[in-house]
Amino acid sequence: MYTQGLNVTDTGKPAAEDPAKLARFQVKVDAEDKIEPNDWMPEAYRRTLVRQISQHAHSEIIGMQPEGNWITRAPSLRRKAGLLAKVQDEAGHGLYLYAAAETLGISREDMVEQLIAGKAKYSSIFNYPTLSWADIGAIGWLVDGAAIMNQIPLCRCSFGPYARAMIRICKEESFHQRQGYEIMVTLSTGTPQQKAMAQDALNRWWWPSLMMFGPSDKESLHTADTMQWKIKRFSNDDLRQKFIDATVPQGHHLGLTFPDPELKRDETTGHWHTGEIDWSEFKRVLAGDGPCNRQRMKAKTEAHEDGAWVREAALAHARKRAERAAAARMAAE
Ligand SMILES: [Fe+2]
Ligand SMILES: [Fe+2]
User: Fold this and answer.
1) DSSP, res 257
2) Over the stretch 25-44, which tens digit does the pLDDT of each residue have?
3) How far is the CA of 170 from the centre of ligand 2 (A)?
4) 137 Cα: distance to centroid of ligand 1 (angstroms)
């Protein structure tokens, strides 16, 4: 439910915007000025950001599950401490992002409700299982690596609160990426069984991480508007190509192979060419039929219900404090 600052018709579609305001808005965006929560903005811009930022926040929170699964089974105290810190970082990212979305007039409670009701999406990558410790390495290297490619340009997003949240998030994501790669280095230079674990993890995570950039430009619905509004700076396919070009040499450095017989370097452009992505798998997982969709939502719903007493207690405490402060003010007058 949206609660404030709206300009919506009865049909739920954004009303036609005032052309003069719209023109001033675009001038500001083109000048690379930040749009702040109290500034005028087109309703479609606000809605796009609410959808994108809340989806991003949900992804950070759901993304804690596949890795949280390995905290108790990390192979050493050092690895356990690192993974624990990483999973906590992801919780923090979710919180910054919920806070950024709240400045657009939606409450965190409503966003979480939309997630639990299945009305809001999170990144499909988190619907894949983590089957071995090597998956923790592969996720850091590939999934956090892909997230960074997507998110670095968002540090310059036209909406101020989102851009500022992304600066801090990206610093932490790059640490996650290096931590994941270091796990992959250790496994790849270890025993033959360890190297086989690393290879198996790469085989399973490679294609899903390429899908993280979203549908190809030909099919992407929102690109033109979001580019004009400077929410997005590069197309899905451009970002995916940057990721592939950065990541393939890292995999070869580990002595690993990629699960793609068509992978080859184009000597004239310098880009790595991949085979066709299986978009039917992407659509299936997005529609709710991935290996872990039900498990992830069940865990989220249970955690939310288990935490109800904490939220209620915090609200009761805040109410009591406000009452005490009001009583003290009255006594002083
Ligand atoms: Fe994150
Ligand atoms: Fe991360």
Assistant:
1) -
2) 999 999 999 999 999 999 99
3) 8
4) 15
